[in-house]
Amino acid sequence: xxxxxxxxxxxxxxxxxVRMFKEGAKEGHGPSQEALANCYDKGEGTPQDFKKAMKxxxxxxxxxxxxxxxxxxxxxHHGRVVPPDPIEAQKLYLKAAKQGHxxxxxxxxxxxxxxxxxxxxxxxVIWLQTAAEEGSKEANTLLQxxxxxxxxxxxxx
Length: 157
Prior knowledge:
It contains nine helices and no strands. By secondary structure, the chain is mainly α. It has two domains: about 1-95, Alpha Horseshoe (Serine Threonine Protein Phosphatase 5, Tetratricopeptide repeat), CATH 1.25.40.10; about 100-155. Helix 2 crosses helix 3 (about 30-40) and helix 5 runs antiparallel to helix 6 (about 85-100). The protein is elongated and about 65 Å long.
């Protein structure tokens, strides 16, 4: 990571970081696999390559890496590299969310929409509260909207 982020003694060198991440990734080191996937996803230190990002994200996600699970969920959600699959996306967002990945918590709102039957509201409140507690402004805003919707629906006086 020292070449990826740099420090007072080491200048940023993304290409060297990718080389080192590859070594660790090939040896099965989950954090290296996720870091390499991130580089391929963003095109940092290597040409952007979503297929390679997915390959390394899959390996890291299998080891329980929440960032890799979130990236894969996003790929399935948006149909990047793979056909859109909302069910697989939801499963992966949920795995990441259970580890406290706050953006996954926010994305789960997509799968637990506010509906007229109110069946999903309790689950949405739980995920949004957790994400808001983790510092997500988006989750806090959505939580306030949901709470207002619930309040407005309740009989008055």
